Amino acid sequence: MKRKQSTRTGGAAVEAALTFPLVLLLVGATIELSTAIYLKESLTIAAFEGARIAVTRKADDEDVIERIEQVYTERGISTAGAPVRQKIRITPAANAANMLEPITITVSAPTAGNTVVPFRWMQFVTPAELSATIVMRKEYTLEGVE
Predict the structure, then answer these.
(1) Which of 49, 62, 67, 117 is 20 to 30 A from 19, comparing alpha carbons?
(2) Residue 122: which of 59, 21, 33, 58 has the closest Cα?
(3) What residues contact residue 108 under an 8 Å CB cut-off, 6+ apart?
(4) Residues 41, 46: Cα–Cα separation, whole Å
């Protein structure tokens, strides 16, 4: 008795062709989200480091900006050609804040140029720009003590 040959040739190829784009999209979205999370955490660290400087007794905005620029460099954060100074907000100025007054440091960076893929092909996954804000109170000042 002869067996009939199967007519299902190429079924696996069709299934692979249908599912491959979905798998590729899922992997791409995962990579994009992971790098966005890393960027957000790096911005939080930069804001925190800047705030640590800002709340000291003799700090001024230049000291804060310098420290934030160092963190941007250490973490490889790109500002897409704009100076880092344009991505930093210090409110109020570090040297103008009174004792125990909150100082707010906000830093930001574009998502483009800070992800694994050089262009934003996953725009629906991450925003165009991420930012982080840290608030700390100015340290006690001892009158007459330098």
Answers:
(1) 117
(2) 33
(3) 43, 87, 129, 130, 131, 132
(4) 9
